[in-house]
């Protein structure tokens, strides 16, 4: 006894059952019923029809065995040295007390302020020694440059 398979639904077709359709390019299609044949001619896709085994397989319906839960990998933490500091220095910083750390921060801020004051004084001295050539606005400077370029045409 030879069993055929329905081209749309995938169900078995027993002998003396079903319908056969031969297309213009002489391919034969076997269908379980007029329902499956009609759906085939309407160009319906079996994977979108909820009653077909193909749909049920794709949507994982009726699977009796539960697959074992996939184990997630735990991230392992590493302490690595950074370019400017070794691992020992990093651990020493981490373990020192907060009041020592805050005192060091205040000292660094004071040092930075001193450095800025020195730079500001140097800039003032440089301005005082500069000639009076820079006493016109940017717009005037731009205007004189454009006049020069126009006359050069």
Automatic annotation (TrEMBL):
The reply to whether Lyase figures as a keyword in the UniProt entry is no
Keyword Ribonucleoprotein attributed: yes
Q: Could you name the Gene Ontology cellular component terms for this entry?
A: cytosolic large ribosomal subunit
Q: Where is the composition biased (Polar residues)?
A: 137-153
Alphabetic keyword roster:
Ribonucleoprotein, Ribosomal protein
Give residue ranges for domain Large ribosomal subunit protein eL24-related N-terminal.
Answer: 1-66
List, alphabetically, the InterPro entries matched: L24e/L24_sf, Ribosomal_eL24, Ribosomal_eL24-rel_N
Locate the compositionally biased regions of type Basic and acidic residues.
94-122
Q: Tell me a Gene Ontology molecular-function term this record carries.
A: structural constituent of ribosome
Task: Cite the residue spans of the region called Disordered.
Answer: 94-153
Q: Which GO BP terms apply?
A: cytoplasmic translation
State the family named in the UniProt similarity comment for this chain. Belongs to the eukaryotic ribosomal protein eL24 family.
PANTHER family documented for this protein: 60S RIBOSOMAL PROTEIN L24, RIBOSOMAL PROTEIN L24
Protein's UniProt name: 60S ribosomal protein L24
Species this chain originates from: Coemansia guatemalensis
Q: What is the lineage of its organism?
A: Eukaryota, Fungi, Fungi incertae sedis, Zoopagomycota, Kickxellomycotina
Gene name of this polypeptide? RPL24
């Amino acid at each position: 006894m030879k069993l055929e398979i329905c081209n749309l639904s995938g169900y078995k077709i027993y002998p003396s059952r079903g319908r056969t359709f031969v297309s213009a390019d002489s391919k034969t299609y076997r269908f379980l019923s007029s329902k499956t044949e009609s759906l085939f001619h309407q160009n319906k896709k079996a994977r979108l029809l909820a009653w077909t085994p193909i749909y049920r397989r794709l949507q994982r319906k009726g699977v009796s065995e539960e697959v074992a839960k996939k184990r997630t990998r735990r991230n392992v933490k590493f302490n690595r040295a950074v370019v400017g500091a070794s691992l020992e220095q990093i651990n020493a910083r981490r373990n020192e007390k907060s009041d020592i750390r805050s005192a060091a921060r205040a000292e660094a801020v004071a040092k930075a302020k001193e450095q800025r004051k020195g730079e500001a004084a140097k800039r003032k001295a440089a301005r005082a020694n500069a000639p009076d050539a820079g006493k016109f606005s940017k717009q005037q400077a731009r205007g004189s440059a454009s006049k020069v370029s126009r006359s050069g045409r």
